[in-house]
Amino acid sequence: MHIGLIGGIGVAATIVYYQRLTAAVDRLGSKLDVTISHGDIQTLIRNNLADDRATQAELFARQIERLKAAGCDCVALTSLGAHFCVEEMNALSSLPVISGVAPLDGHFTAQGIRRVGLLGTRVVMRTRLYGQLQQTSAVALDAEIDLLGQAYQDMAVAGSCTAAQRDQMIDAGRRMVEDMGAEAIVLAGTDLNLAFDKQDPGYTVIDALDVHVSVLADLAAGRCSLDEVAMTK
């Protein structure tokens, strides 16, 4: 299956998606057929902060048309933050949209995890992953959402993480585990791998990117059909 990715939101996240998807499909003994359409992260940030879902959905719909013209069979966003307009985008999309959020609840349940702590964009933390967790409870550092959200945004735009930002994110996760009962910290922002990769924070970390990539890899390798995966809602 030919996978379409909407990337550039941000660039570092897109690179990680490409790297991990390529590796996952290779492990399955298959070949990856993928096309990436580059989006603009600054436009996404403005529309996200303004909650301008319609405008961003229209921009994504145009990219999806280009991906369809390139022969893609489905499309995925390389950013959980970009899912803020997923309902509007899904209504306009000419291709099936493979959700990066919908598979998470089942993944947590399969791991026996009942409560997670969230790190990501302001909207992801504030809405507890867009309210799509049905079997798992989620917590966030509500008093620090703006601070953590800005730090995450700065990382995504820069495509890099400072030592101070890394310490800030790891400490936020630790406090959700120790003070709020989180059994795992979910990297619900694709660029958070910049802070957590090759780190041992002393608690369980689940990268939402890996869950999404696993679904996309199974599709790319023909191990499942579009009817069997969790689409956007």
UniProtKB/TrEMBL annotation:
Sample GO molecular function, one term: amino-acid racemase activity
Domain of life assignment: Bacteria
SUPFAM superfamilies: Aspartate/glutamate racemase (SSF53681)
Keyword Isomerase belongs to the record: yes
This protein's record includes keyword Isomerase: yes
Pfam families in alphabetical order: Asp_Glu_race
Keyword terms of this UniProt record: Isomerase
PANTHER family linked to this entry: ASPARTATE-GLUTAMATE RACEMASE FAMILY, GLUTAMATE RACEMASE
Official protein name in the record: Aspartate racemase
Organism, as annotated: Leisingera methylohalidivorans DSM 14336
